[in-house]
Model the fold of this input.
Amino acid sequence: MGKKSEGKGKGKGSQLVIRIDKAEREAFVTLCDALDTTAAREIRRFMRGFVAAHATGEGKSEDAAEQPAQAKEPPATDTAAPPVEG
Done:
C-alpha cells in the first residue's frame, strides 16, 4: 500500500487535548482571527516560550541556562507576638 503524504515534511505531530470554558475558547479564537493568526499557532508559540523559559537539565536552552531562576514567594510565617511572662 502507498504511504500518505506527511504534510510539510515535519513528520507526524502530536495532539494535546484540553478542556476549557466555552466562552473563553470563543473569545480566544475570535481574538486570534482579529489578529490574523490561529489559536493553534498562538498556543504552540506559548508552549515554545514556556519550555525555553523553564527548561532544566538535559535539553536546556542556552538562553534559559544564563537566566537566574525566579525566587518563589517565601512561605507565610507566624507574626504573632511572643507571650508575655508575668
User: Anything to note?
Assistant: DSSP finds three helices and no strands in the chain.
